[in-house]
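Running this now, will post back.
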Amino acid sequence: MSTLLKPNHIGRKISRIRELRDMKQEALAQALGTNQQAISAIENSETIEDAKLGEIAKALGVSVEAIKNFSEEGVINYFNSFTDNKGPIYTYTGNYCTFNPLDKLVESYEENKRLYERLVQAEKEKVEYLENIIKGK
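Update: finished.
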């Protein structure tokens, strides 16, 4: 049976949202701390208790209401809203990078350098400690 025949089949709605999020049952199971068989059972259930539904919604990154109100038609309408031809084909939305990627690269390099220096210092201290133990015998 499809979700069209059973519009309140929560398990199928969860399954569809999971698929749209490009998530496997195993990934959802890991996020919930359970196994894939439990997710399969959930997706085959017509109803789910609210506490469990809240956990699933959080793991999927959606609200409980989004799961309860999910419909294939709504998804299609949502994506069709991006392709209506009422305006120009390309509209600049003002999205731009708020940081300089080269600055981030330099920061990363400097952090790695500091970590390497700490590692070298720790190794020097370890060698000195072992030499003192050997001299003490």
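Residues 98-137 form one domain. More later if anyone needs it.
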